[in-house]
Amino acid sequence: MSARVLELLAIMERLRAPDGCPWDRQQTFASIAPYTIEEAYEVADAIDRGDPGDLKEELGDLLFQVVFHSQMARERQEFDFEAVAGAICEKLVRRHPHVFGERRPLTAPEQSAVWEDIKARERSGGAANGIDGEDTGTGGAQKASVSALDGVPRSLPALMRAYKLSKRAARVGFDWEHAGQTADKVAEELAEIRAAAETAAASSPEIFEEVGDLLFAAANLARKLDVDAEAALRAANAKFERRFRAMEELARQHGQTFASLDLAAQEKLWLEVKRAE
Asked: pTM of this prediction?
């Protein structure tokens, strides 16, 4: 390992030492997990903003999370950073047989298909081979995969998990043949929300369930159209925020307070902002 990686590992070990940092010492896998997720999102945000300097810093923060988890596992004599690096090296070689084994040219879509096939074989044989088995939450014990949906983490953002669940289902044939059929399903779910809204209270369990069905159908449609639903929603969020802030600024320029305007006036500002883009 490089000198700086060894230095980072030594810093982490020192922070967790008996005379180290009290906050770092009291952390557990569970307490650190939210920070790990947060750092991953901050990496994505730096990429979206096209800021290489910030990306470097955020990648360092994410690497620190890996080191933190590895140090805690090392203290429990389960694994260490070296084992983590070794596991990903072995996985990458195993999942790229066209590069490290029988060399043959593949297109990107063909490689994606090969990757998914290998993952599926690993899941089905994980318990026997020690490969990618599902953690039962009881000290690292593993169980054999019994479903095409095994291994999709429950901790994923809901939209991303919907995308992955529908993708797994499609791999075993449970999928619409055409994107148009998937779009029809979205329209069907929207119609069911409209019908429920006519008879049920806004916060009723029925409407809650129907909205969830609509969002799942939308994520499935995104997959069918080869669109990353999570990234598309992030982009839509950013567009809405940009336009909303621009409306507020236009109102100020007109000597108005945006919140005091009626909906028609606000909509007029919205259209003005859209035309200016």
From this structure: 0.62
Torsion of CA 138, 142, 143, 148, to 10 degrees: 110
Running DSSP on this structure, what letter comes out for residue 28?
-
Conformational region of residue 140, where left means phi above 0, alpha means psi within -120 to 50, and beta covers everything else: left
Residue range 158-276, CATH number: 1.10.287.1080
Q: What are 31-49's pLDDT values in tens digits? A: 999 899 899 989 988 998 8
- Tens of pLDDT, residue by residue over 54-103, are 999 999 999 999 999 999 999 999 999 999 999 999 999 988 888 888 77
Give the list of residues 6+ apart from residue 102 with CB closer than 8 angstroms, or none.
none
- The alpha helices in the chain, defined as continuous H runs, are 3-15, 22-25, 29-48, 52-75, 81-94, 97-100, 108-129, 158-171, 179-199, 205-224, 229-253, 263-276
CATH of segment(s) 3-143? 1.10.287.1080
Classified as helix, coil or strand, 143 is strand
Q: Which amino acid is at 259?
A: A
The token pair at 224 is: 């069918």
| Domain limits, the chain | 3-143, 158-276
Q: Do domains 3-143 and 158-276 have the same CATH topology?
A: yes
Q: What percent of the chain has pLDDT over 70?
A: 92
Distances (CA, A) of 100 to 16, 50, 57, 91: 39, 33, 32, 11
Q: Residue 135, SS3?
A: strand
